[in-house]
Amino acid sequence: MSSDSDNEQIEAPSDDQPESTKITPTPAKEIELPKFEKGLADKIVEKFGAKTKVAFVKPDRVGINVGRDDIKEVAEFLRDVLNFDHAESVSGVDYPQDKEIEVVYHLGSYTDSTLSSQILVLSTRAQREENPIPGNDATKLPSLREIFYSVEFHEREIFEMFGVYFQGHPDNRRLLLPEDWADLPPLRKDFAIKGR
Amino acid sequence: MTNELPPGLALQKVDERIMTLNVGPQHPGSGHMRIIVQIDGDFIVACDPDPGYVHRGEEKMAEYRNYITNIPHLERPVIHDSCNVLYPYVLGVEEILGIEVPERAKYVRVIASELNRCIYTMYWLAIYGIFLGHSTMFMWPAGDRELLIDLMEKMTGARVTHAHFVPGGVRNDLPPNFEDVCLRQVNYFEKRIKEYAAIFYDNPILIARTKDTGVLSRQDAIRLGTTGSVLRASGVDYDLRKKEPYDVYEELDVHTNVMTEGDSYARSKVPWLDMLESCNIIRQALQKMPKSGSVRVKLKPNPKGKVFDTVYKRVESGRGSLGCYIVSNAKPEPYRVKLSVGSFRNLIALPYLLKGEKLGNMPSVYWSLNYWPVEADR
User: Span B68-90, mean pLDDT?
Assistant: First the structure.
């Protein structure tokens, strides 16, 4: 196991994080929000109300935070009503100070020409375990593979790199890491690169 | 009958005749990856790509280095296309740090990015030629590529891995007389690659081997979330230089090349058409570029993001949309850098396309996906 106690010099860069990493809307500066993006965010909030939270509205980017129980419902709405048809990228971000791992889906659209420059950033958080046993602990999220086929390899990558198990994913094997990898999932913050 | 024979002498049952074959990671027809195919006679019944042989943990390394020292290693995934790989990261850092880039630097970036796209595509085309046993098509692109590599060497000082883009502009101004040399080389380059049509794209052998193999329909190209030339060969008009113009692409006339067949032939031809388009873009950029002026905004040493912030930037690289997701906090190092690369996104189409295909068609289908193993693994 790679841990901080091996060497006092090595510290995961997350240790002295500021406490609040959850993206919150910044009501302080009420500058003019982009109209089209605002409309998108409003449609989602109108449909789901308190289940979703608008994280940010920037030119061409709308960020939505969803709880893990509602993400499939929201994703289906995004695909069927708002015409987002594929996932560009799925990223994991580890927040040890919140005891959570965030999974961020960047959704785009090829079929709807009004959305061709838009990216909808859908994010949800899974519980983070101190001593992970990938696949057999509480770090689990519902898979979006049935809704967006394109997330298949991305979710496999996140499972091996963060230990987030996707329930309902048909193929939860390793993708990039070697078969005999027995250490922590390497993109977690408590996995330290040796020598740095 | 077979049950009565002693064990070991038993004949294979008919439904057990499916053989599993490992292609790669050393096979010249697979690149740095393994493709596990199951074949029934000559036909592929299942395919399982196994990437990861060149995984280098770029994303993890990026969390340990500051915004500037990340530059030389984040361009490593595709050394031939290093400007384009770095492009979204640099655009993202500029948004985080709030930097405005000088006009001339934007044009220099567009020129460098288009030259890199051609350099990458020529390398890819050379390998596509040798995959199909066409050794002239290996030698010609490998040789003509040198024209543009010389240009990049003049511009940046390095033949590959230029590390030329920095937050705030580009590292150095163009050398004197670069515009004239560039125009001359690009014109000659364009004349040369037009000759490839006669030897390669109109070649009956290539057409016989690639037409109607590995057909990806428009609907499936969208559903699988493919990108770049794979998407455009299936009839989807989507190019980020046009759809979400970054830097000065808005002021340039960019034509998107779309083919509707969706087979290996279309996927191999779209990158070649894109190279011709790149020549047009370079000529326009050379003409419109301000003749003098600054190319770089001086940054404070060790710049930091102000608050917790996320940014997702994307550009059109030689292999399709290339996105960079950066999470910053009030530290000189990024909290998280994620590269979403075209090769990784197109890989999902491989098992889908190879099912039912003949084993002999595997190289032509696989390499037509414009897949770069090192980029997919990061």
Answer: 89
Which residue from A61, A86, A186 is facing B57, i.e. has the nearest CB? A186
**pLDDT score, position B271:** 92
Q: What is the ipTM score, two decimals?
A: 0.84
A-B C-beta contacts closer than 8 Å: 102
Q: Which residues contact B73 (CB under 8 A, 6 or more apart)?
A: B58, B61, B62, B65
Has residue B114 got a pLDDT over 60?
A: yes
Question: In the sheet where A119-127 sits, what is the strand order?
Answer: A52-58, A61-66, A119-127, A100-108, A86-95
Rounded CA separation B219/B253 (Å): 28
Query: What DSSP string runs through B133-191?
Result: T-HHHHHHHHHHHHHHHHHHHHHHS-SS----EETTEESSPPPTTHHHHHHHHHHHHHH
- The residue among B270, B263, B23, B272 whose CA lies nearest residue B126 is B272
Q: What's the whole-number average pLDDT of chain A?
A: 79
Contact B60 A23 (CB under 8 A): no
Q: Which residue of A has its CA nearest to B332?
A: A13
| Residue A13: per-residue pLDDT | 44
For residue range B303-350, list pLDDT tens digits in order: 887 778 889 999 998 888 999 999 988 888 889 999 999 889 988 888
Please, are residues A79 and A85 in contact by the beta-carbon 8 Å criterion? yes
| CB spacing of A121 vs B348 below 8 angstroms | no
Q: Taking CA atoms, what residue in A is nearest to B322? A: A88
pTM above 0.80, yes or no: yes
> What are the backbone dihedrals phi and psi of residue B105, each rounded to the nearest 5 degrees, phi first?
-60, -35
Q: Which residues of B touch A63 (CB under 8 A)?
A: 310
Q: Contact, A71 vs A126, CB < 8 A?
A: no
Give the Cβ contact number of residue B351 at 10 Å: 17
The answer, for A164 touching chain B at a CB cutoff of 8 Å, is: no
How far apart are the C-alpha atoms of B16 and B33, rounded to whole Å?
A: 27
Structure tokens at A118: 């838009």
Do residue A150 and residue B224 have CB atoms under 8 angstroms apart? Answer: yes
Tokens at B69, concatenated: 């020292």
pLDDT at B52 exceeding the cut of 90: no
A146 close contact with B: CB closer than 8 A: no
pLDDT of residue B371: 86
Question: A18 at the B interface (CB within 8 A)?
Answer: yes
Q: Which residues from chain A sit within 8 angstroms of residue B60, using beta carbons?
A: 186-187, 191, 193
C-beta atoms of A193 and B64 within 8 A: yes
